[in-house]
Amino acid sequence: MSVVAPPDRPPTSETDYLWTLNFGPQHPATHTTLRLVLKLDGERVVDALPDIGYLHSGFEKIGEHLDYNQYVTVTDRMNYISPMANNVAWHGAVEKLLGIEITPRCKYIRTIIAELSRISDHLLCTGAIGLDVGAFTFFLYAFYQRERIYNIFETLCGARFTNSYTRVGGLMYDITPQVVTQIRDFVRTFPETLDDMERLLNKNRIFIDRTKGVGLLTPEEATNWSATGPVARASGVTRDLRKDEPYLAYGDLDFKVCCARAGDCFARYYVRMAEIRESLRIVQQAVENIPSGPFNVGVDERTTLPSKRDVYQTIEGTITHFELVMWNRGFVVPSEEAYAAIEAPNGELGFYLSGDGSNVAYRARCRPPSFIHFALFPKLIKGHTLSDVVAVLGSLNIIAAELDR
Amino acid sequence: MPATPQTLDALKARFGELPTSEFRGDTRVVVGKERLLELMEFLRSAGFDLLVDVTCVDYLNYRGATDRFGLVYLLANTITSERLTVRCYVNESGLRVPSLVPLWSGANWLEREVYDMFGVAFDGHPDLRRILLPEEFTAFPLRKDYPLQGRGERHNFPVLLRSQA
Predict the structure, then answer these.
(1) pLDDT at position A7 over 60
(2) For testing the chain A interface, which of B1, B22, B24, B137 should be mutated: the one with the most A CBs within 10 Å?
(3) What is the mean pLDDT of residues B47-60?
(4) Which of A81, B44, B50, B150 sits at a 20 to 30 Å CA gap from A226?
(5) Which stretches of chain B are assigned E, i.e. beta strand?
(6) Would you state the pLDDT for residue B85?
(7) What is the mean pLDDT of residues B46-57?
(8) Is B134 among the domain residues?
(9) In this predicted structure, what is the pLDDT of residue A88?
(10) For chain A, percent of residues with pLDDT exceeding 70
C-alpha cells in the first residue's frame, strides 16, 4: 500500500515530462478494488506501479482462530467468483493434514462442483475482457449462463454466492436427483450458447485487434514469475494439476489440457474458452458416473459433522456434534505441516497448513494465484497503450479479494 | 509427487546430510540460511523451475520448536511434477535471509508479503517495501504475539482533514 517509486526506478530529469495517471482504486474497469499508478508517454505506458492492499482483511490471521470447518466460510470470500473451488481446495488441504481419505461419491461431487465453478469463473473472466474492450453482448451471454450455474448451486446447497459447501471429510448435503437433472440440462443446452459466444468474438476484428500481441508472456518468463493455470498455459506451459497430479476423480475422467503458444491476451481468452468446453465434458462424465454410497466418511473416523436431523433427533448425533464443535475436543490433528493444491480456475490454489494438535490451524497460508499473476502486470503492460491496460488486466483475471486476502 | 530418490541423492552428494523428512507425500528439506541461496541455485538447475510459494510460520509457543520463524519455500518441477519443500529457520537475532529474486522473479512479491507480515528481511531484494499494509504500519501482524482483537496501529494513524486532502 504505497506508491513510492521503487529504488531501481527513481524519477530523473529525463523522465519528468511523463504523465502520471491514477487508475483505481475505484474504477469501473478494474472490476475490483486495486490501484495502478501509470507513467504515460503520450498514450504509451512507460511504467506501471501496482498498489494493492485495499481489500486486505487478514484472512490468514483469521485462519489461525477459526476451526477447520468454520474457516470454509472465509475461503468463499477469497475468490468469490468461484467459491466452490476454494472450498474444495481448503478441505483438500485439511484432509491431507488430518489424513482423511474421502469417499468416492464425495470425490465425484467435488469434481463436479469444482468444474462448474471453473466454467463460472472463466465466463466471468472472458465476459469482463469482452466488456472492457467493447463487446457488451458477449458479456450478457456469459452472465446469463453464470446465473444458471448459481441456480444449480442454490439447489445443491441453498446458497448462490458464498456456498461453504464442503466439510472436513465430506460435504454439507448429498447431491439430489433434482440437481443432477439441472446439471444435465445445463450441459445439454450450454454448448449452443458457447458456440454463439465464440462466434461473437473469435473472429471479431475489433476484439482481435485489441487483444492479439498485447501483453506477451513467454513460457520461460511464465514459469520464472511463478505463473500457473490459464495464464501459464496460454504461454505454452503444459502444467495442469488435474493431469499431472490427479486429485479427486480426475484420474478416472477423460479430458484434455488446453494450451496455446502465443502468450498474449487473446491466447489467454482462447485457452479459457477451450477450458470451458473441457470442463463441460468433465461435468458430463462425472455426473453420469457418480458412485453410490455415503458422501461423508464414516462416523468412526470422528471427523464429519452429523446431519442436522441426527443432531436434533438422536442422542448419538448430539454427542458426535458436541464432540466435534466444542473448542476443547474436536479433531485429532498431527503437529505437522502439509501443502495441498488444486487446479483452481485461476491457477494453482493451495493451502499450506500447519497443525499444532488443536482444533484450529497454527498457520493457514493460502497460495493465491491472483496475487502472483498481478505481479506480472507491470511487465506485461510496458510499451502498450493506455487502452490496453483493461485488456491485460482482464486477461489475468485479478480478483482483489484473493489478491489482498 | 514427492521428491525422487535421485534428487535427494544429488542433494546429499552436494550438501551433505541435510535434515530430510516426509509427511503424506511432501518431502521437506531443512537448510541453514548460509547455504539457502546455494541450495536453491542447485535445485533450480536440477529442474525445479517453478517457485510455487514462499511463506513463513511463526513458531512462538509451538510445542517442541526451537527456532522462532520457519521460512517455507515450495518448489515444483513443471515437467516431472516433482515437488520439494525447503525450510529455513531464522531467529530474532538475525532476521535476514538471502533473497531469491535473482533466481525467480516470482519471488519478488512473495518475499515482500513475508516481510510485510513477519518482518523477515530479504538481502538483495530489489524493492523490499510493505505490500498489503500501509507504509505507516509498524507491526508485523501474522506474528503470533500480534493480537487478533484490540486496539492497535489502526488507531495511531494521523487524522487527515478534508482541507489537507
Answers:
(1) no
(2) B24
(3) 91
(4) A81
(5) 20-23, 26-30, 50-58, 69-76, 83-90, 96-98, 121-123
(6) 93
(7) 91
(8) yes
(9) 93
(10) 96
| B131 inside domain | yes
Three cell numbers at B42?
542447485
> What ipTM was estimated for this complex?
0.89
Task: Tell me which residue range forms the domain holding B46.
Answer: 5-155
The set of residues, in sequence order, having a beta carbon less than 8 Å from that of A10 and lying 6+ positions away, is none
Question: What pLDDT is stored for residue A9 in this prediction?
Answer: 60
Residue A55 pLDDT > 60, yes or no?
yes
Question: Which of A138, A126, A94, A158 has its CA nearest to residue A355?
Answer: A94
Q: Is residue B37 part of a domain?
A: yes
CB contact (8 A) between residue A335 and residue B63:
yes
pLDDT tens-digit readout, B90-102: 988 888 899 999 9
Angle between helices B36-45 and B5-15 (to 10 degrees): 140
B110 to A6: CB separation less than 8 angstroms, yes or no: no
Residue A108 banded pLDDT, cuts 50, 70, 90: very high
Q: How far is B128 from chain A (nearest CA, A)?
A: 9
% helix, strand, coil for chain B, step of 5: 25, 25, 50
Instruction: Provide the domain count of chain B.
Output: 1
Does the A59-404 domain belong in CATH 1.10.645.10?
yes
Among residues of chain A, what percentage have pLDDT more than 90? 45
For residue B26, which phi and psi values (nearest 5 degrees)?
Answer: -100, 125
| Surface of B (117-146) touching A: CB under 8 A | 117, 126-127, 129-135, 141-142, 146
Question: Would the CB atoms of B127 and A56 count as touching at under 8 Å?
Answer: no
Q: Give the residue from A226, A239, A372, A380 with the most B CB atoms within 10 Å of its CB, the best one to mutate.
A: A226
Taking alpha carbons only, the member of B114, B104, B115 closest to residue B37 is: B104
Residues of chain B contacting A244 with CB distance shorter than 8 Å:
81
| Beta carbons within 10 angstroms of residue B80's beta carbon | 13
Helices A104-132 and A388-396 cross at an angle (nearest 10°) of: 180
Q: Which amino acid is at A321?
A: H
Q: Pairing relation of β-strands A35-41 and A44-51?
A: antiparallel
Q: For residue B162, tell me if it sits in a domain.
A: no
Which CATH number does the domain housing residue B135 bear? Answer: 3.30.460.80
| Residue A247, amino acid | Y
**Contact at CB, A350 and B141, closer than 8 angstroms:** no
> So where are chain A's domains?
59-404
Q: B residues 4-43 near A, CB within 8 Å?
A: 23-24, 26, 28
Question: Hey, which residues 48-67 in chain A have their CB within 8 Å of chain B?
Answer: 52-53, 56, 58, 60-62, 64-65
pLDDT of residue B133: 87
pLDDT classification of A321: cutoffs 50, 70, 90: confident
Q: Check whether A263 has a pLDDT greater than 60.
A: yes
